[in-house]
Design brief:
Layout: E1 6-10, H1 15-26, E2 30-35, E3 46-50, H2 56-70, E4 75-77, H3 93-115, E5 120-123, H4 130-139, E6 144-147, E7 149-151, E8 155-161, E9 169-172, E10 176-181, E11 184-189, E12 209-218, E13 221-227, E14 232-234, E15 237-239, H5 241-248, E16 260-264, E17 268-272
Helix pairs in contact: 2-3
């Protein structure tokens, strides 16, 4: 079994895809490329598949062969894509359909098949509904799910999930300190932005960045509830939309849900979905 990280890149016959593949080969990756055209690579750490990324049968066959040979893949870069530079009124329908197939259908097929053989899958940016995480664990029992945490203002912190199906996570690492003040996460970093242009500073006087993220605490672990700005005050009770959405998503035949507030003259706000 190969020890190098295995990366799949679409559209490696030319242009940006070719450059990306060349870069990661030089960084010590095993690169698997694909395209409808020929490629220039002559490396034992490069493997190429000739296919149309919109062809579901061929895409499934490709990933089946990757699983058989490598047992896994680590990174997917959906590079293949096209754009029409014609004015909308001059663009034929066939071109629009081709663009949608490559840019959307192709990306969908590669994402769907790659997640089945990835060993680690990261999630973050927005709070993950607990019901969604539990469902993913049941569908993909061999994948390790890792929650990440980062901000443009400070960078990406190191993280460690409590369990594969848990939203509790440790964040911090070298160069970062964390603390909880009034249920809100604050972070001090050795490297951080100076501030916002023409806006109030998000830093305390002693250099702590106020993230605006509300959290629960369990020892060294935190659970991110959501943004303070998203909180719904119902007669003094604090309700976070993500928690309600997670419960509703457990209901049969519910695919997507959005929870929001509406003003109420008696209790201030009511929760709506």
């Amino acid at each position: 079994m190969i020890k190098k990280p295995v990366m799949v890149i679409t559209g490696t016959s030319k242009g940006i895809g070719e450059k990306i593949a060349d870069y990661y080969l030089n960084q010590g990756f095993f690169v698997i490329g694909c395209s409808r055209g020929d490629h220039k690579f002559n490396s034992k750490y490069y493997e190429h598949y000739f296919l149309d990324i919109c062809n579901e049968v061929l895409v499934k066959k490709m990933f089946k062969q990757i699983r058989k040979k490598f047992g896994r893949m680590d990174i997917l870069i959906n590079n293949a894509g096209i754009a029409s530079h014609n004015h909308t009124l001059l663009t034929p329908l066939e071109k629009v359909q081709e663009t949608m197939n490559i840019n959307f259908i192709g990306t969908f097929l590669f994402c769907r098949e790659s997640v089945k053989i990835m060993k680690i899958n990261q999630f973050g940016t927005e709070p993950m509904p607990e019901s969604t995480l539990l469902k993913l664990n049941s569908l993909f029992p061999n994948i390790k799910f890792l929650q990440t945490y980062g901000l443009i203002e400070l960078g990406v912190l190191r993280s460690k999930s409590k369990k594969n199906d848990s939203l509790w996570v440790q964040v911090g690492g070298k160069g970062y300190e964390t603390r909880i003040v009034g249920g809100m996460l604050e972070i001090k970093a050795k490297s951080a932005m100076l501030g916002y242009l023409n806006a109030a500073t998000p830093f305390t006087k002693d250099g702590w960045f106020k993230t605006g993220d509300a959290v629960e605490v369990d020892g060294d672990y935190i659970k991110i509830l959501g943004r303070k700005s998203e909180l719904i005050n119902v007669g003094g009770e604090k309700v976070y939309p993500q928690e309600v959405e997670s419960v509703i998503q457990e209901i049969e035949n519910v695919a997507e849900v959005r929870v929001y507030k509406e003003k109420n003259s008696i209790i201030g706000n009511i929760v709506c979905a």
